[in-house]
Design a protein that fits this description.
single chain, 300 residues, alpha+beta, 2 domains, five-stranded mixed beta sheet
């Protein structure tokens, strides 16, 4: 028994040592891949740093403070119109500048009306500009001398209508080709006349459809901007009750002219209708004399 106790003690000591060595070895092997994994994490962190520094692969953040623009879909057919109401010191000059802006952007003027005189001038101008310069035109028009009171933009989508017209046009053109192919097959004059009449009807419809398509295309290629420009109303400054002899004299002259006008009007009315009460008075006096009894002379 004593001989067995020695090896048992040695074995009891070696088993935990072997298990501990095996555990350390496994930990060492797992730590090696984790080091490689550390490089992966390091790359992820580096990517985040590159993105923060504005690396080429990073997605740029939207800039703040940029002016809003009208975003349109190029695949859609839109008719853009805008209306601007503005007050200006010289509406006529502002209208001329608006026309120059439209011409500079490749557009032209549709209508312009300038009315009034002096400080009561006003203007109404309507221009058209290429649709791809619509935003730029609005920006330049709003920067003109004056105060923008109202500004609104309207977009009308005519894509479905434009597509429908194009499909109908293609169908009518195909129908026209079929009638043209039937011409050589006509054997009688009556058949020729019927084919010619049908062909003329189809060609008329083709021209109408082409005209509608051209009209829509023209309205989508060019946008209309209408400006109503009114004068700036100047409020007279308060004089604070100071006495001005010139103002008093002007008021007196105005009051005197009003008095003379009233007197002249009264004289005209009396001249036209004044004889009517005189006739009535004369009739009354005559009637009263006829009613009085005769006076007898005294006897001596």
């Amino acid at each position: 028994m004593k001989t067995m106790r020695g090896p048992a003690r040695v074995l009891a000591i070696l088993v935990p040592v072997v298990l501990l060595a095996a555990a350390c070895a496994s930990v060492g092997q797992s730590s090696a891949p984790s080091a490689g994994g550390g490089t992966a994490f390091g790359r992820t962190d580096q990517t985040a740093v590159d993105a923060a520094k504005g690396a080429p692969n990073a997605i740029p953040a939207p800039e703040l403070g940029t002016s809003s623009t009208i975003v349109t879909n190029p695949s859609r057919n839109l008719i853009l119109t805008a209306n601007i109401t503005m007050k200006s010191q010289d509406p006529w000059a502002t209208a001329d500048k608006a026309r120059a802006i439209a011409n500079g952007l490749g557009g032209d003027i549709l209508a312009m009306s300038q009315t009034g005189q002096g400080e009561n001038r006003s203007a109404l101008v309507s221009v058209r500009v290429p649709s791809d310069r619509f935003d730029e035109a609005l920006r330049q028009l709003k920067l003109l001398d004056g105060e923008v009171i109202t500004s609104n933009v309207d977009a009308k989508d005519v894509t479905d209508q434009f597509t429908d017209l194009q499909a109908r046009l293609v169908a009518k053109q195909a129908e026209e080709q079929r009638y043209l192919q039937l011409f050589p097959q006509a054997k009688t004059v009556d058949e020729t006349l019927k084919i010619d009449a049908a062909l003329g009807n189809v060609r008329t419809q083709i021209e109408q459809l082409q005209g509608q398509i051209n009209l829509i295309k023209n309205r989508t290629d060019f946008s209309t901007i209408t400006m109503a420009i009114t004068p700036v109303v100047t409020v007279p400054a308060n004089t604070g009750g100071t006495w001005d002899p010139a103002v008093t004299f002007a008021k007196a002259i105005a009051a005197l002219s009003v008095f003379f006008k009233f007197a002249a009007d009264l004289a005209i009315w009396l001249l036209v209708f004044g004889w009517i009460p005189l006739i009535a008075l004369a009739i009354a006096v005559a009637a009263s004399r006829m009613r009085r009894p005769g006076v007898t002379a005294p006897t001596s």
